[in-house]
Specification:
alpha+beta; HIT family, subunit A
């Protein structure tokens, strides 16, 4: 009899239409790769060399205020700019370039240089959630902004150049590739089935429970059935909302709570500040209804076996399709069984 926990198979991601190969039998092979102990490093609450700490100088004449809560500023090295001329040059079907306007911002979560989401109080994370909602609405109201991408790169392994707790917002004129694929799939599912793709998926996961990591009244954290990264997590709202600014006060507090729960479990898994790329997929800000879009958060962490052993997408995975050995079910179980008390706090 075929067994998802024993036999090689592939799983389809209904949000993108893409497939991942799962090879659970490979977890039985002996590991002969690199192993290293986790580095234990405690950061100071203030770093005079950090360009994100309160009162410190950034670029040119820009100086941070002595902020005491959440602090937002336009990125000094913005990837997207609001004043870009139209590309009026000759266009080719094979060599096509279009101008792209946008706004790039940085959101500092806290003045405390040593913190991460996992070690912040839920009340303080709630203030960050409030700011995310404000930024989404404010930037989305601009006529030339059609999509607002909020994301956090945490850790050197994910390319973060500064450990100070912060994230970025890239608001763009066009809808980027990944959310565009997900929106198309959600639209198609709604048209075909008359219901929300992610609402229906969450109902299936809630009945099973085997891939749920943690949950509260308004949100569930799940290792998706189609996850590519070993400890990938998706946070889904139990109430259908298209964007973060639609959350009421209780939902914002619950979202802060589950963010802390997920990130604390991550840190406790290998007793190290866990690296990841995290971001929200929500409806575009182009003025259309987008009733099919269900707000959700993706966590893509690279770690595989320890604090230093990561999963690389190489070989067949970049030439063919992604592959994983650890099943989503076993990954969810490991995360679910971890304490919600941070290892650095006893």
């Amino acid at each position: 009899m075929f067994d998802l926990n024993e036999h090689s198979h592939r799983r389809r991601n209904p949000l993108t239409g893409e497939w991942v190969i799962v090879s659970p039998h490979r977890t039985k092979r002996p590991w002969q790769g690199q192993t290293e102990a986790a580095k234990r490093e405690t950061l100071a609450t203030y770093d005079p060399e950090c360009y994100l700490c309160p009162g410190n100088k950034r670029v040119g004449d820009n100086v941070n205020p002595t902020y005491s809560g959440v602090f937002v500023f336009d990125n000094d090295f913005a990837a997207l700019q609001p004043d870009v001329p139209e590309n009026d040059g000759e266009k080719s079907e094979l060599l096509l370039a279009e101008s792209e306007r946008g706004v790039s911002r940085v959101v500092c979560f806290s003045p405390d240089h040593s913190l991460t989401l996992s070690r912040m109080d839920v009340g303080d994370i709630k203030l960050v959630v409030d700011e995310w909602a404000l930024q989404y609405a404010e930037l989305g109201d601009r006529l030339f902004i059609n999509h607002v991408q909020i994301f956090e790169n945490r850790g050197e392994m994910m390319g973060a150049s500064n450990p100070h707790p912060h994230c970025q917002i890239w608001a763009s004129e066009s809808v980027p590739n990944e959310p565009a694929k997900e929106i198309a799939s959600q639209d198609s599912y709604l048209e075909k089935n008359g219901s929300c793709l992610l609402c229906d998926y969450l109902e299936i996961e809630s009945r099973s429970g085997e891939r749920i990591v943690c949950e509260n009244e308004f949100f569930s954290a799940i290792v998706p059935f189609w996850a590519v990264y070993p400890f990938e997590v998706m946070i889904l709202g139990k109430v259908h909302r298209g964007s973060i600014d639609e959350f009421d006060e209780r939902e914002r507090a619950a979202f802060a709570d589950i963010l802390k729960s997920v990130t604390t479990r991550y840190d406790n898994l290998f007793l190290t500040p866990f690296p990841y790329s995290m971001g929200f997929h929500q409806k575009p800000t182009d003025g259309d209804e987008h009733n099919a879009v269900h707000f959700h958060a993706h966590f893509y962490p690279p770690l595989l076996r320890s604090a230093t052993i990561r999963k690389f997408l190489v070989g067949f995975e970049i030439l063919g399709s992604p592959q994983r050995d650890i099943t989503p079910e076993s990954a969810a179980q490991r995360l679910r069984e971890l304490s919600e008390g941070h290892y650095m706090e006893g």
